[in-house]
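Appendix B, record 7
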Amino acid sequence: MKINSFFIFIVFCVGAVTSNPAHSMKDTQSNNKNLWLNRLKFADGKTKMIDLNDIQDQIDITVLDRMHSADNFKKKIANKVVFIQQNVDGTYSICLDGKVGYDIEINLVYVLLEHFGEYISKLVISMPNPKSEGHLKKMVEIASQYCENLLKIFITGGKNIFDVVKKPFYNVTSVELQFSEFETHSQNFKEIFPNIQRLELLWFKIKDDIFNDHFPKLDYLVIGMEDRFIGKLIEKNPQIRFLKMGFVSANLVKLASEHLPILETLQLPYDTKINYEGEIHFKNVKHFEINKITGGLLNITFEQLEELKCNSYFFSQWIDTVETNPNLKKLTVKTRDGVDDEYISLLIKIARNLVEASFDCACHTQAETIVKFLKESKHMQKLYLNYCYSILNELKLQIPDNWNLMLLEHEVIFIERK
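Structure tokens (predicted):
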């Protein structure tokens, strides 16, 4: 009989770690029999009971020889994302790097974190069901004690989950939280993650000031919704260089312009509510992305803008931005409606320094317009055309000799200067 190697690996490696020379393999098996009787459901839907008392009868001796040491298990999980989640049916599963997962008993998860936590560098725990909050907190507690080389942690769910932390996560530089709630906290977030560089807060609820602090190394911040505590976080961390905010208001964008003097990248990929009509100015932002806006126009200006990504449904509002930023080198315009020929022709006049562009073609986009854009854009090196397959043959016939054309995945036309 064959058993999934990953879980056999856990069984034997943990067995090796928890045993000592004074105890035989059978002693260890006997002491931990209840712990290791685990149901593992495989990709083919079959279920297998694993019992260490007869494990050697089921596994080829050469497999045993390869998998008995912790060093091999270290190689198995090193630099991979260890993903632990609660399934819809209430069971738990584990997988590496997003590959096929397998059901696993929760006690085995605890032992994995305790005995092999030092080898885990990226940990994802997804427990959105409030009924699993106890298990989630137990994992966070164990991780704080044994995952000493952890670099990245991503947690879904939980309430006041960091109250159980025993030791600071000194090496963690990236923290992502979603569907989490913070009513009170017994420990300072900066003390728990003293070296945090990247923080992502998505769909959360905050009732205290756990994030109201200065994090000296924080330079990458992602916000999934607006909250009054987010303003305090922005105000106290002027060193932030990357800011991504979804479902926020123009007031928060204004606040960022006032308190983030060295911000280089600003992304507003979701709906931005316009509740401020004055000018919002960024001195050092080089990369700007915006999608949908509601309630009016966003009056935003830049001094050093080099890249603009926007939705062509609102592209008419950003033509002035293109024209007033002569250093603009990269332009991406996305939407199902496509970019009208008149705007492509206008770009020839107002965006003379473009090096790279990406457009979604409209249903009436003409090959002649694209060819003219290539000929007259003197600095252009790369052009991506989405939803333009209908004019592919015409482009092949008309494209200048100093350009290469190829078809990429999803029928994206890629044109590059030779």
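Remarks on this record: The chain has 15 helices and 26 strands. The radius of gyration is 27 Å.
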